[in-house]
């Protein structure tokens, strides 16, 4: 037995950055190593940067926080690992200018992931750093796709037991950068994904091979849909929830909403009380 880490901590740090897209030093610390001093996380990230696997930008605001992201080289290496098989980061994920322009939304998505991760640790549930997958592409035909901000896997029950039910969720993190109606229109997109059956040229559906919705190739049940609302005050939050309620009255959505739970909550409540609280 080899009595060394063999790069396991470095591997997890790189995998988290590839999967989460970007994170501050503090976020990385709480995701990958909350049980050690933050200085160890800083040294780990600095070492990965020296090796060309990750890079950083410094935000101009007070405090000059550092935001870390994978380089193209780091992403290429990590995507060869079994735990990231099939993941293909966007071509701009490693571009410092693109990172700077996306930083507000991306860090809010990472903060949302951290809320679920810390809640699972407190509750004894199963939710690991790589159980949060950003921007998973789901085609809905005609060259269109649904790309949630994140796909979450969260298993109820003790980590060291058989575990409870697996909860899967599409997570949409809204920072009030679009109007309430555009936010609510996402319900229609997810309903399209729920019913989308791809056509295969030359193949006809039969009783033995009935048509199958595309999502069933990935999930035993369609993931629930969670809207996490941020970037506005209580009145703005209520306006956005009202828009979602109004959209949900559309008769075309009844079948989808009957089968798929759709929930919404302010990010401030998730951070204060945890996702498992009655927020």
Question: Which keywords apply here?
Answer:
10 helices, 5-stranded mixed sheet, globular, 3-stranded antiparallel sheet, single chain, 279 residues, 10 strands, alpha+beta, 17% strand
Poorly predicted tracts of residues: none
Distance between the termini: 47 Å
Beta-strand residue fraction? 15-25%
Average predicted confidence as pLDDT: 89
Strand line-up of the largest beta sheet = 4-7-8-9-10
- Treating each run of at least 4 consecutive H or I residues as one helix, how many helices? 10
Bin the helical content: 40-55%
Apparent shape: globular
Q: Tell me the series of helices and strands, N- to C-terminal.
A: HEHHEEHHEEEEEHHEHHEH
The number of distinct β-strands equals 10
The helix/strand class is alpha+beta
Major sheet details: 5 strands, mixed
Q: Nearest-angstrom radius of gyration?
A: 20 Å
Topology, element by element:
Blueprint: H1 8-20, E1 23-24, H2 25-32, H3 38-50, E2 54-58, E3 66-70, H4 72-78, H5 96-123, E4 132-134, E5 138-141, E6 144-146, E7 150-155, E8 166-174, H6 180-184, H7 186-195, E9 224-229, H8 234-248, H9 254-259, E10 262-266, H10 267-273
Parallel strand pairs: 8-9, 9-10
Antiparallel strand pairs: 1-3, 2-3, 4-7, 5-6, 7-8
Helix pairs in contact: 2-3
Structural features, described:
The longest helix is centred in the middle third of the chain and has 28 residues, at 96-123. This protein has 279 residues and is of the alpha+beta class. The mean pLDDT is 89. The strands form three sheets. It has a five-stranded mixed sheet with strand order 4-7-8-9-10. A three-stranded antiparallel sheet has the order 1-3-2, with helices on both faces. Strand 2 and strand 3 (66-70) form a beta hairpin. It has helices at residues 8-20, 25-32, 38-50, 72-78, 96-123, 180-184, 186-195, 234-248, 254-259, 267-273; strands at residues 23-24, 54-58, 66-70, 132-134, 138-141, 144-146, 150-155, 166-174, 224-229, 262-266. It is built from ten helices and ten strands.
């Amino acid at each position: 037995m080899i009595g060394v880490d063999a790069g396991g901590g470095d591997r997890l740090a790189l995998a988290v950055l590839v999967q989460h897209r970007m994170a501050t030093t503090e976020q990385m610390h709480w995701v990958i190593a909350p049980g050690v001093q933050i200085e160890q996380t800083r040294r780990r990230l600095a070492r990965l940067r020296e090796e060309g696997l990750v890079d950083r930008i410094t935000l101009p605001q007070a405090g000059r926080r550092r935001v870390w992201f994978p380089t193209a080289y780091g992403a290429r290496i990590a995507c060869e690992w079994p735990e990231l098989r099939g993941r293909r980061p966007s071509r701009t994920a490693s571009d410092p200018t693109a990172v700077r322009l996306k930083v507000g939304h991306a860090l809010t998505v990472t903060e949302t992931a951290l809320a679920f991760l810390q809640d699972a640790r407190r509750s004894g549930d199963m939710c690991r750093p790589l159980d949060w997958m950003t921007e998973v592409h789901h085609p809905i035909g005609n060259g269109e796709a649904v790309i949630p901000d994140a796909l979450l896997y969260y298993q109820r029950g003790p980590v060291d037991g058989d575990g409870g039910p697996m909860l899967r969720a599409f997570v949409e993190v809204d920072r009030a950068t679009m109007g309430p109606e555009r936010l609510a229109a996402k319900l229609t997109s997810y309903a399209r994904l729920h019913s989308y059956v791809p056509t295969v040229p030359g193949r006809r559906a039969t009783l033995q091979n009935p048509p199958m919705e595309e999502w069933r190739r990935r999930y035993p049940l369609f993931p629930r849909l969670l809207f996490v609302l941020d970037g506005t005050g209580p009145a703005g939050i209520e306006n956005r929830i009202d828009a979602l309620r109004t959209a949900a009255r559309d008769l075309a959505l009844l079948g989808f909403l009957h089968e798929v739970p759709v929930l919404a909550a302010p990010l401030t409540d998730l951070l204060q009380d945890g996702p498992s609280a009655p927020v």
